[in-house]
Design a protein that fits this description.
mainly alpha; rod-shaped
């Protein structure tokens, strides 16, 4: 039973980490796009 618990916890941590990473990536991508638009178009 302990091994199953460890696998479930590990899987949950991997999923949470993936979600946070994806969210951070998308936020950074948006900031870079805004910065490039400002640099290219002077907006």
């Amino acid at each position: 039973m302990k091994q199953r618990y460890a696998v479930v916890v590990l899987f949950a941590l991997i999923m949470a980490s993936s979600l946070v990473s994806l969210t951070s990536y998308r936020a950074t991508e948006q900031l870079v796009a805004e910065d490039m638009n400002q640099a290219c178009f002077g907006g």
